[in-house]
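[worker-b] picked up task from shared queue
[worker-b] task type: protein-ligand structure
[worker-b] ligand name resolved to 2,6-diaminopimelic acid; SMILES cross-checked against name lookup, match
[worker-b] sequence length check passed
[worker-b] input payload:
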Amino acid sequence: MKFSKMHGLGNDFMVIDAINQRVEFTTAKVQRWADRNFGIGFDQLLVVESAQQAGVDFRYRIFNADGSEVQQCGNGARCFAKFVYDKGLTDKTEITVETASGIIVLYVQDNGWIKVNMGVPNFAPESLPFTVPKQQEKYTLEAAGQKVQVGAVSMGNPHAVMQVIDIAAAPVEKLGAALESHSQFPERVNVGFAQVIDNANVKLRVYERGAAETLACGTGACAAMVVLSRWGKVGNDVQISLPGGDLRVQWEGQLDSVVWMTGPAEMVFEGIIADD
Ligand SMILES: N[C@H](CCC[C@H](N)C(=O)O)C(=O)O
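[worker-b] inference finished, payload out:
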């Protein structure tokens, strides 16, 4: 079975065309393919399928390295768009795609970057600490022997975001792992550590659900911007600098405003899976 290896700012993906080839896999196979020694190695697997809904161009499914299927992936969405456009699966530069958390719209720009309408942030989905957001912009949680204050938001997938003074010294591994599986998050959670530089620049590291710390997280960048905007720390057009590179995130700040994310997507190599 053919696959492409891609990345968005170092958040890397195995991408499979399940339209033009039969694709069968199990959780164990995803885990094996994700292994950076015994497999291909990736943070997430993206499976490209035909749309199920009329009027939509594609459907794509997202699996973390631990095999869990998830609702959304920002960097993956950009790589998906580059994949279907460069492979000639579409000649459209405005691409609609079904995901497990709804339909998103992707725009292939002249410079090759992809702009994504990531939809509306959801502050009170059932899989987050549940309360009325306007009364509780911050949740105080105990984890890894310390009390932390986080903002919680869903970009289709759950995110907990905290502000830190120094991103380089942030306890991403220890605190990220403890919060990822915290009892307050019944579906686990992606954990963002954000250092505000000014109201248009944020440094971010993300301990991803099902993948540990990645070099970049697109939905994490959106979640951090939205939470920090609600806390009055940033404006409506922010550069999010992750270890793998920068994303532009825009959000007008109303609860019904969509979040726009813009950034690159790269093809690295093509391959054939030996044990499909
Ligand atoms: N780990 C995430 C999925 C991948 C998200 C990330 N790679 C992105 O670019 O948004 C989750 O379990 O919800």
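[worker-b] attaching auto-annotations
[worker-b] The radius of gyration is 18 Å.
[worker-b] releasing lock
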